[in-house]
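#help-structures
NK: newbie question, is this the right format to request a structure? protein is Vitamin B12 transport system ATP-binding protein
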Amino acid sequence: MLILRELTLQGRLKCFNAEVVPGELVHLIGPNGAGKSILLALLAGLEHGEGEIEFCGRRLLSHSGRQLARMRGYLSQQAPRPAAMPVWH
């Protein structure tokens, strides 16, 4: 279960509330600049805003970085060019 309460990031995302139950499919749509990417970054724990995100019965930020890495999948909308990637990639 994912619960979002009063989630905001000043200048980037206005107050957002939602509840997603297991097995539910959610589509996130909107015009450019609506806050879709920042919302996803907040949900992934990569940005910190105001409000509360509850995931699996706990506040998102109470999970360790290792736990978050095991529970999420995140692909940035801007990937580096192949020529700019380090050799180890």
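mod (FA): yep, format's fine, and the tokens are attached above. The chain has a mean pLDDT of 87.
NK: thank you!
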